UPF0260 protein SAMN04488523_101251
Amino acid sequence: MSDLRPKFWEKVPLKEMTTPEWEALCDGCGKCCLNKLEDEDSGEVALTRVACRLLDDATCRCVHYENRHQFVPDCIVLRPDNLDTHAYWMPQTCAYRLLWQGKPLYDWHPLISGTQQSVHDANISVQFDTVSEFDTPFEEWEDHIIEEPT
Ligand code: SF4
Ligand code: SF4
């Protein structure tokens, strides 16, 4: 992490972060890789435990992150200039959303704790708690709606 400025998340505006700093904000919770159901009328977003086909729920990471668009063309590339559009559906504990809201990161964030394991220990991640979208027909997604682990 030597190319990250000390405590950059407390001082550097999102739009002025370097690419490594921006990437380091992701805590690896995996929650944004769960499918959501959005009510067309109310705009309400419900989270399900039905995971994207590329999510490894042991590591909570995308198994083909660099070339994921070959498999999942609509996977969103989050950037400082599109955060305004996406923040509403992002997990409440997501570092991008927290900073966008002007809030601090939690102590379990790997940038603060120094270890990825703290995200799992705090029960924030989706580790071992998903079902695959391959095995779960869309009609059944409603049966898998969950509260976001926070
Ligand atoms: S919800 Fe945010 S912090 Fe968690 S994996 Fe997704 S982008 Fe990273
Ligand atoms: S393609 Fe990868 S990064 Fe995108 S939602 Fe699926 S698992 Fe997550």
About this structure: The first strand starts at residue 34 and ends at 38. The first helix runs from residue 8 to 11. The chain has one domain: 8-146. The chain has a mean pLDDT of 95.
